[in-house]
Model the fold of this input.
Amino acid sequence: MVLGTAHPGVVRVVGLGLIPFAIEVALLSRRGTASLVRRAPAVIAADIAWVAASVVAGWFDPAGAGLVGAAATVVGGFAAAQWRYLAALRGDLRTNRR
Done:
C-alpha cells in the first residue's frame, strides 16, 4: 500500500475520475480565449476542491499523507497559476474591446 489507506476503492475511483478531467482540461487548452475565460473558473474550482479534499481526508498513513500533501501543493500551485492567467486573459479581453 503506497498511500497506506483503509479505503483503496475510493482512491481508485477518484484516480479513475481524474482521467476524464485531465482529458477535458487538455481539450480546453486547445480552444480559443473566449472558451478558456468561460470554462477556466470550473477547472480552478475543481483544483481548489481537490486541495480541500486532500487536507480534509484523514485516510492515509504518514507516508501517504506526505504524498497526498505534495500532490495537493502542486495542484494548489496550478490553481493559483490558472487564476493569474485567467485574470490576465480577462484584462486582455477588456483592453481589446475598447
